[in-house]
Design brief:
heterodimer; A: 160 residues; alpha+beta; 3 helices; 24% strand; B: 150 residues; mainly alpha; 9 helices
């Protein structure tokens, strides 16, 4: 198991090169297709939170985009989703006692949102990488890469 | 009686006949073992083999095509969370455009490793397998396999 984990870690570092300098990088779950990063950032582990697929037939298990939130793939749409969940925009990803923060990512090339990461109560960050594993990373920037792009904004809400 | 060396008593013609007969024996034995002679001499069998070859060719070329697109798609999208990016990917679209021919391979894949490849079935059949809001991708994969394999 240890060797397999190390191999996955090496593989992930290939994809997310900034993780190579991250002392807090850890794999924290097995790979599973049952939830995506947005769901994980919202603290769910049993669903894909996505808008229904823009004019195409609905897809199995992609049902959790709240009807009150504008459907779309641009960063403000994702921001609106987290506002729906009680978050407000904030200046940084610095840990603040009593608050849970999320970082939203976007690709500048096509102006699509790409990812969301959630700050844990120990100040480290957690991300679900697509259909792959959950990981812990030390900073939001540690998973910036060609696919995820850059952090678009930080948001926070009172920790309950 | 005095023994003489065996080779000294063999004339060249005897040697040639001996070698020929042994060789033929060896080859015919090999042919009988491999079945090559029987295929060549039986037209029904030959016809059957031809048709099997054709079906095999179609099967393997489609499987190869599917595996090729699957591998590329996984490589590019495993870490993505955006349904649009996952589905608009050209290799995913290539799998969907194979239509029903891709279905056995999709089933084989999602049965052993549940994944959002199941969305290819949504697009090929133009329907969802479940409207249960609590179903997961793994559940959907199991339901499709059960539905299409019965």
């Amino acid at each position: 198991m240890g060797e397999a984990l190390e191999e996955i870690k090496r593989f992930l570092i290939d994809i997310f090169p900034n993780l190579s300098d991250d002392p807090y990088f850890e794999i924290t779950s097995s790979a599973t297709p049952n939830y995506n990063c947005i769901a994980w950032a919202c603290n769910y582990s049993d669903r894909w939170i996505q808008p229904t697929y823009l004019g195409r037939p609905s897809l199995d298990c992609v049902v959790w985009w709240p009807p009150e939130v504008t459907e779309g793939i641009e960063p403000p749409n994702l921001k609106e989703l987290f506002e729906f969940h009680g978050y407000v925009e904030c200046n940084s990803g610095e840990f603040e006692e009593g608050y849970r923060k999320v970082a939203l990512y976007y690709s500048k090339d096509d102006n699509n949102w790409t990812h969301a990461a959630r700050q844990k109560s120990n100040g480290k960050w957690t991300s679900k990488l697509g259909q792959s594993n959950d990981i812990q990373h030390g900073t939001p920037e540690a998973i910036e890469n060609n696919n995820y792009g850059k952090v678009y904004c930080f948001m926070k809400r009172k920790f309950e | 009686m005095q023994l003489v060396p065996f080779s000294a008593k063999l004339k060249p013609i005897t040697l040639a006949v001996g070698m020929f007969s042994t060789t033929q024996f060896a080859y015919s034995d090999m042919d009988a073992y491999s079945g090559i002679l029987s295929v060549a001499s039986n037209s029904k069998t030959a016809e059957h083999i031809k048709s099997v070859d054709k079906n095999d060719y179609i099967y393997f070329s489609q499987k190869f095509r599917f595996q090729y697109h699957l591998m590329n798609w996984e490589k590019k999208t495993t870490f993505l969370s955006s349904t649009k990016s996952i589905i608009d990917d050209e290799d995913f679209q290539a799998i969907v455009s194979m239509g029903y021919a891709a279905v056995p391979y999709i089933l084989e894949e999602i049965e052993s490793k549940p994944s959002v490849l199941v969305w290819a079935l949504n697009l090929i059949y133009n329907k969802k397998i479940t409207n249960n809001p609590n179903a997961t991708i793994t559940d959907a994969c199991k339901l499709w396999v059960k539905h299409l394999k019965k």
